[in-house]
Write a structure and sequence with these properties.
By secondary structure, the chain is an alpha+beta fold. Helices cover about 25% and strands about 35% of the residues. It has one domain (about 5-90): 3-Layer(aba) Sandwich (Aminopeptidase), CATH 3.40.630.30. The protein has a 5-stranded mixed sheet with strand order 1-2-3-4-5. Strand 3 and strand 4 form a beta hairpin. It is globular. Pfam families: Acetyltransf_CG (PF14542).
């Protein structure tokens, strides 16, 4: 899979990643707080495992969080681990 699109579904408090055919490949849920976005749970659907979907989703969600001027609380083990592997995102941690 090469083309994916990540969007912030504000109504559901989650970033969603969709495949080029429109199918939702995964999402990361967050709780919005005062100046902080707490990422609490990330899911990549089984049929999309091993394609880098989780990484694309994490990067896009964190980039948007930075652009929104918010800090990150990484309650979700996946997001916490991803930030740990990408030190250039550690400045986002609240």
């Amino acid at each position: 899979m090469t083309d994916t699109q990540v969007s912030n579904n504000v109504e559901r408090n989650r970033f969603e990643i969709h495949a080029e055919d429109g199918r939702m490949a995964g999402f990361t849920e967050y709780v919005a707080g005062e100046g902080v976005r707490d990422f609490v749970h990330t899911v990549v659907k089984d049929e999309f495992e091993g394609q880098g979907i989780g990484s694309k989703l994490a990067r896009a969600a964190l980039d948007q969080t930075r652009a929104d001027g918010l800090k990150v609380k990484a309650t979700c083990p996946f997001i916490k681990g991803w930030i740990g592997k990408h030190p250039d995102y550690e400045d986002l941690l609240a």
